[in-house]
């Protein structure tokens, strides 16, 4: 459950009929009890411990409710092992407690992971590194939310990704190849996250440059998505200025230069 945010609204109350009922009232009649017990989570990779108030956690999904309420896990002696790395778990906890996703990086961030691959001989613009790292962080957060069965968090991450792509404008910020590999390794065919990554590349008219075999399934989905979009755009037709020679044995050096279709 996302905690309510404060919104300042200016209303014209001269006419009661003109008042728009905008509010941030919670659907629950009681607030979270932040004096309640805490649940301890454990990073599966580093064994770091995280402590979060139990009430907001168990309301997120049956996954958490079962572990805490039924199996009685979540103590310091018997923590819940989380299916994600430290940064992903921390980002998830911030989302469920504050309703924000801390995926954007700024110039003050001191993150070795964000600078991975940079060296003195190959200068990579910091902005590009941070942009690429954000795609990977968001994909890992979506996968984590899926594993803990938190559909609201999954949807929030998708909305963030779409906003990130839309805000990139002509720069065309695209999910990185590493992000794609992560998604395809941890999701099933036809998953919403896979479909969104494919659609973003279709919208951009782009394809990954890496020929890694790990991208084969994505490239197949991308081909299918591109063909589907072309079909929906107006059916199949031969593009303007296509020559027969383009497909003849002799190729473009041949003698038959007539175009098949014109503008």
Q: Helices, strands, pairings?
A:
Blueprint: E1 38-43, E2 49-53, H1 54-58, H2 62-70, E3 80-82, H3 86-98, H4 126-147, H5 151-168, H6 177-186, H7 192-204, H8 216-234
Helix pairs in contact: 3-4, 4-5, 4-6, 7-8
Characterize the structure shown.
There is one protein chain. This protein is mainly α and about 260 residues long. The protein contains 8 helices and 3 strands. A 3-stranded mixed sheet has the order 2-1-3. The longest helix has 22 residues.
Shape: elongated
Strand order in the sheet with the most strands: 2-1-3
Give the radius of gyration. 25 Å
> Biggest sheet, in brief?
3 strands, mixed
H/E topology pattern: EEHHEHHHHHH
Number of strands: 3
Class per helix and strand makeup: mainly alpha
User: What would the average pLDDT be, to the nearest integer?
Assistant: 75
Number of separate helices: 8
Give unreliable regions as ranges.
1-23, 109-126
Query: β content, as a range?
Result: 5-15%
Cα separation of the termini: 55 Å
Question: Helical amount among residues, as a percent range?
Answer: 40-55%
Protein name: Chaperone protein DnaJ
Organism: Teratosphaeria destructans
């Amino acid at each position: 459950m996302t905690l309510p945010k404060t919104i300042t609204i200016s209303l014209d109350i001269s006419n009661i009929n003109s008042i728009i009922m905008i509010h941030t009232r919670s659907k629950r009649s009681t607030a979270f009890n932040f004096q309640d017990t805490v649940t301890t989570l454990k990073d599966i990779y580093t064994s770091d411990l995280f402590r979060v108030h139990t009430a907001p956690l168990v309301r997120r999904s049956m996954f958490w409710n079962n572990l805490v309420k039924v199996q009685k896990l979540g103590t310091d002696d018997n923590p819940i092992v989380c299916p994600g790395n430290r940064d992903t778990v921390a980002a998830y906890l911030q989302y469920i407690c504050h309703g924000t996703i801390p995926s954007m990086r700024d110039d003050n961030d001191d993150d070795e992971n964000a600078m991975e691959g940079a060296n003195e001989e190959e200068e990579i613009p910091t902005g590009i590194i941070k942009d690429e790292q954000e795609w990977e962080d968001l994909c890992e957060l979506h996968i984590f939310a899926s594993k803990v069965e938190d559909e609201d968090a999954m949807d929030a991450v998708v909305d963030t990704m779409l906003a990130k792509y839309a805000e990139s404008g002509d720069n065309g910020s695209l999910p990185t190849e590493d992000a794609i590999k992560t998604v395809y390794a941890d999701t099933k065919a036809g998953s919403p996250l896979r479909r969104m990554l494919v659609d973003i590349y279709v919208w951009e008219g782009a394809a990954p440059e890496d020929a890694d075999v790990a991208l084969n399934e994505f490239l197949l989905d991308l081909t299918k998505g591109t063909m589907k979009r072309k079909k929906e755009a107006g059916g199949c037709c031969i593009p303007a200025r296509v020559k027969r020679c383009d497909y003849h044995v002799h190729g473009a050096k041949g003698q038959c230069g007539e175009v098949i279709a014109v503008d």
